[in-house]
Amino acid sequence: MVTGRSAEGPERQNPRLAWAELLRLPALFTVPGDALAGAAATGARPDSRTLLAIGSSLCLYQAGMALNDWADRAEDATERPHRPLPSGRIRPAAALTAACALTGAGLAVAARAGRPVLTIAAPLAVTVWAYDLALKHTPAGPAAMAAARALDLLLGAASTTGHLREALPSAALLGTHTLAVTAVSRQETQGGSSLAPLTALATTVLLGRLLAHRPTATRPPAGPGEAARHGLPGIRPDALAPMARHRRCRRSGPTRPAADALSTALAAAYAATAARPYLHAALNPSPPLTQRAVGGGIRATIPLQAALTARSGAGLTALFIAGLAPLGRRFGRKVSVT
Asked: What is the DSSP letter of 232?
């Protein structure tokens, strides 16, 4: 839906605008931060494989958007008749074809990035399709969406060092946020209980507090001698080189006080973006306020990704992610994501 314009105007007949609505163009700005936060969690700088992971993620995200509208076309005909499929601006067969093509493209790009990335992209694609076709309207729906976001972050970790363990805490925090937003979105068309937005508000406050505290890094023993003093097995000299590069990457960003200040500021931005609309929806769970709460939760994804990245010590990458928020708002004034 184009804001501020008549539904009968020529803008509604623009096929490019219809596809921008179907693929949720403004929401695409929330995608790159997943892979970048995952790469930062491993302590490695983003590289060409990280860019490929982002490309794969964008394709799979758009596939999910097209498939979502195809699966919900009958429901949208009643509740969202302005959407591209029920309004007749895009044929259902075209949307399904786009979903299949984008899924294939996402997996092909992931394969180009390497087997570790494809190993994450494949279950991510399965989760996207399972959510849209089977799980969305079941109690497992929010958990499936949360799993998809968490896997998307792990896609970035797989593209760098291939070690996922270090990225699991960040993936869990991002998944928790997504779980809360999705739970609220289930009642955005008809309103409902205050429980979901109230729970989402409490989740946002908790995540904001966690994000404001940078985890303490654990330094591996410097060599066989120090390892022996700690009762650990010795480390081969050739195994120390990746660790040294790992530490250099973490030191290449802002100093510790500056990084902590940046993490705190981004955590506050995250909480401020999501908390207020959640509170309004909790006080009055009407459809308009619930929809605003969902929009606030989606917008808060970017400062959350940036805070996770800054928390991992990658300050410059965090600032880049944060800079995607105004771009998303700019496009959001022209294209609706609801």
From this structure: -
What span, in angstroms and rounded, lies between the C-alpha atoms of 118 and 115?
5
Does the 16-214+256-336 domain belong in CATH 1.20.1050.10?
A: no
With the C-alpha atoms ordered 46, 48, 53, 55, is the resulting torsion angle positive or negative? positive
Instruction: Give the span between the Cα atoms of 282 and 208, in whole angstroms.
Output: 19
CB 57 within 8 A of CB 86: no
Q: What is the distance between the alpha carbons of residues 309 and 54, in angstroms, rounded to a whole number?
A: 15
Neighbouring residues of 204: CB distance < 8 A, sequence distance ≥ 6 = 177, 180, 270, 271, 274, 275, 278, 300
Q: In this structure, which long-range contacts are made by residues 245-249, counting pairs with CB atoms below 8 Å and at least 24 apart in sequence? A: 245/44, 246/42, 246/43, 246/44, 246/161, 247/43, 247/219, 249/43, 249/44, 249/45
Least Cα distance to 170 among 64, 51, 8, 310 occurs for 310
Contact 30, 328 (CB under 8 A): yes
Dist. CA 81–CA 202, nearest whole Å: 34
Q: What is the pTM of this model?
A: 0.83
Q: Contact at 8 Å (CB) between 127 and 147?
A: yes
Cα–Cα distance for residue pair 87/76, rounded to 1 Å:
9
Q: DSSP of 107-165, one letter per residue?
A: HHHHHHH-HHHHHHHHHHHHHHHHIIIIITTSTTHHHHHHHHHHHHHHHHHHHTT---G
Amino acid at 112: R
Q: Which residues of the chain have pLDDT under 70?
A: 1-13, 214-256, 334-338
Which tokens go with 228?
């022996």
pLDDT of residue 180: 96
* Total residue length of the chain: 338
pLDDT at 237 (0 to 100): 43
Distance from C-alpha of 237 to C-alpha of 224, rounded to nearest angstrom: 8
